[in-house]
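Homework-ish question, so no full write-ups if that breaks the rules, but can someone show me the predicted structure for this set?
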Amino acid sequence: MARAIYPGTFDPIHNGHIDIANRACAIFDEVVFAIYDAPPKKLLFTTEERLALARGALAHLPNLSVTTYVGLTVECARQNKADVIVRGLRNVTDFEYEHQMGWVNHQLAQDVEYCCLFCNGDYAYLSATFLKEVASLGGDTTHWAPPAVLQALREKLNLPQVDPNTHTISRKGSKFAYRD
Ligand code: ADP
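A: Not a homework solution, just the prediction itself:
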């Protein structure tokens, strides 16, 4: 039985991550979506919040579980009895980084394979950083993340709420359309 982990920061989970998770679940018997507890970068969401958002967004995948981890990713793979680490590849920049990460992980654990899946073209430039930045400026991020994630972003960023009847939100006196 092939078991994989899909590790990352997921701050927060977005449609590019979900696409990779969907495809990993079609390839592997079991997938563990592993949220890195303490990456060396500033996070918007707490570990518990990232966990809850990921669980909600991935609930449709029966062969996927969501967990958090600290320490080495290869140790997370071993603890979860996984043979494979899955990552998503968007572009050449990701390739350079993932190539290095693959080498490092192979040095640490020859028994764990590093598997990169090319991202869906629809999400080729989508990153959690852009999602947060555009959301914070009131831009339309409807197609980038599930509604629950967008709602969590609005709350976290203290943005005005969407009017469910008119589908409009107001921000600092101006109004713009919000499409569901
Ligand atoms: P990291 O784990 O490097 O901190 P993320 O948590 O944002 O970064 O991403 C986790 C994984 O998802 C990485 O393998 C990353 O390349 C991949 N990923 C990020 N954005 C996308 C996207 N738009 N499409 C497909 N995969 C993506």
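Now go work out the reasoning yourself. Hint: Residues 8-10, 16-17, 20, 39, 87-88, 90, 94, 119, 123, 126-128 surround adenosine-5'-diphosphate (CB under 6 Å).
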